[in-house]
Write a structure and sequence with these properties.
With 157 residues, the protein is an alpha/beta fold. Helices cover 37% and strands 18% of the residues. The protein has six helices and five strands; from the N terminus they run βααβαβαββαα. Strands 2-1-3-4-5 form a five-stranded parallel sheet, with helices on both faces. Helix 2 runs parallel beside helix 5 and helix 3 packs parallel to helix 4. The chain is globular. The protein starts with a strand and ends in a 6-residue tail after the last helix. The relative contact order is 0.20. The mean pLDDT is 94. The structure holds ligand CA2. The site of ligand CA2 has 17 residues, from loops. Ligand CA2 binds next to loops.
Length: 157
């Protein structure tokens, strides 16, 4: 059975593509979702994409994910920098978590440079725009698809 990935998106990510393209690019969240669907299929994963502006809704989705999904990819938007509640839910869910950001948060305002949820993440990908979600799916496949990492061809020089 294909490994199931839940991709959670936090506040304002529904606005992608409409404003601030110099920071977040021109892709909409629907564009990113469509690309992820294709990439997931090629990697032998299934993907479910969700977005909410409400912190509690994101926490509920994380709590419900156990048993329904095999890994979480999370762009928590601004809650990244504020939410102990989301951190606690991610720590408790028992699933591998990959944190993603479109922008390189380390090059931005000081308050964006700290992530509460990073403590719960296997790894953090930031600064590659929508492509970062594809990288996160690759990372999830390496973690979940048996034999995938082992069978990767070694480069011979
Ligand atoms: O770089 C990221 O992916 C962020 O998670 C995006 C968040 C921001 O608060 C984080 O610091 C970094 C913002 C979400 C998108 O906000 C928009 C606002 C207006 C127009 C388009 C997007």
């Amino acid at each position: 059975m294909a490994s199931r990935i839940l991709v959670l998106n936090g506040p304002n990510l529904n606005l992608l593509g409409s404003r601030e393209p110099h920071i977040y690019g021109r892709e909409t969240l629907a564009d990113i979702e469509a690309t992820c669907r294709k990439r997931a299929r090629a990697l032998g994963l299934t993907v479910e994409f969700r977005q909410s502006n409400a912190e509690g809704r994101l926490v509920d989705w994380v709590q419900e994910a156990r048993g329904q999904f095999d890994a979480l990819i999370v762009n928590a938007g601004a809650y990244t920098h504020t939410s102990v509640a989301l951190l606690d839910a991610l720590l408790a869910c028992g699933l591998p978590v990959i944190e993603v950001h479109l922008s390189n948060i380390h090059q931005r305002d000081e308050f964006r440079q700290h992530s509460y949820i990073a403590r719960a993440a296997k790894g953090v990908i930031c600064g590659f725009g929508g492509k970062g979600y594809e990288f996160a799916l690759e990372a999830a496949a390496d973690l979940l698809v048996p034999g995938r990492k082992k069978n990767k061809k070694k480069k011979t020089t």
